[in-house]
Amino acid sequence: QRQHAQAQARTHKTRGSTNLRGNQPVQSSRLPHRDAPPQFSTPLCPPVSPPPGRGDRRRRMAAAGAATPVGAAPRVGLLYDDRMCAHATPDGEKHPENPERLRAIRRKLDAEGVASRCVDMKAKEAKEKYIASVHTPNHIKLIRDISSKEYDYRRNKTARKFNSIYFNEGSSESAFLAAGSVIEVAEKVAAGELSSAIALVRPPGHHAEHNEPMGFCLFNNVAIAANYLLNERPDLGINKILIVDWDVHHGNGTQKMFYSDPRVLFFSVHRFDYGSFYPCEGDASHCFIGEGAGEGYNINVPWEHGKCSDADYVAAWDHVLLPIAEAFDPDIILLSAGFDAAMGDPLGGCCITPDGYALLLTKLLGFAKGRIVMALEGGYNLKSIANSLCACTKVLLGDNFTYNSPRMQPFESTWRVIQMVMVCNVLFLCNFSLAINICN
Ligand SMILES: [Zn+2]
């Protein structure tokens, strides 16, 4: 299956593309409206709905012994630092991954009175020894030096060697700040100083590989923070990390970094389009489930086409992510929070609403004592990312939220994808003791 997926991806491979745009979405019929999602069965593992009360944050957190007492306002960290706007195209060319993304989000959070309710955090540069947990010395040296004068005359030429990358004089500092910022907020959440946190960082990280920047990403910020918690702060008691990547693109870099590591469960839901959607690699398929000790700890939910909406994502949550999170029982959740599956995004071609993001986030709050760290990844429609992140921030702050949707209609293909994922991961699911409930 893997060979087939890889061969399929190679056919469509478009390495060297200058942006993350995939093919145009194909049409797929929507199922007629149902009051309840259709149930399907596999030989060993029928689908599961989240346990009752899963979305009841206060009750779940109280039961789990959360640090935030019931009734107390959650302490939500918000990290914004204008220095991460220094990374920009060298000659001012238009580019979807630009500094206005951070500023638009910040303006919205200020205008809604949301930022002032959060704990203000400042960015810190990551130490190289922490970045070295996922990147090679050559990669770190390149990103450290790329903004120096010695690169002035070959910076653009160097950027062109990579896939969808630009550099300027501010890139080095921004990259070190982005990585260090996710470490900073993750550490505070893990230590219980904050209930949850949002790191508004750029450049994004989830495409960055061990030895090369890729897809607008220089360092893999979330992967670095995960390794920091596991390796550098054992005193914080973080032994199992769930990384949820809801960016519309596959988190190829993060997947590789934890592919054989059972301490990190990586879940990515993304457009795949049979291997033709960026990054156009076969390893974004559902067949790639991890290897060695990490076998089963890598979950890909690969959409077959665009236009996926709240209903499709909720189905993936209810039938795949939530049962797996229940079984895995993470100590903290790191969210690779790209918003390029949002309605109106110029690259993603999907249509999650701000309320849809809020609902997906609400469903995660019952795990890991509500310890969630959101790190910005993609998302290129300024209005969409600002509205979506604002809705998510309100969820973390504990505001009452009701999702009003009279019609939840996943694509027919969504059920097919979910079924494939369930079959591929059935062994993994059944290895957990809690999964007995799922598999029997
Ligand atoms: Zn993306």
From TrEMBL:
UniProt keyword DNA damage, yes or no: no
EC number(s) recorded for this UniProt protein: 3.5.1.98
GO cellular component labels: cytoplasm; histone deacetylase complex
Chief location bin: nucleus
Compartments, as annotated in UniProt: Nucleus
Gene Ontology MF, one: histone deacetylase activity, hydrolytic mechanism
Cofactor: Zn(2+)
PANTHER family in the record: HISTONE DEACETYLASE 18-RELATED (PTHR10625:SF25), HISTONE DEACETYLASE HDAC1-RELATED (PTHR10625)
Name of this protein: histone deacetylase
Annotated organism of origin: Aegilops tauschii subsp. strangulata
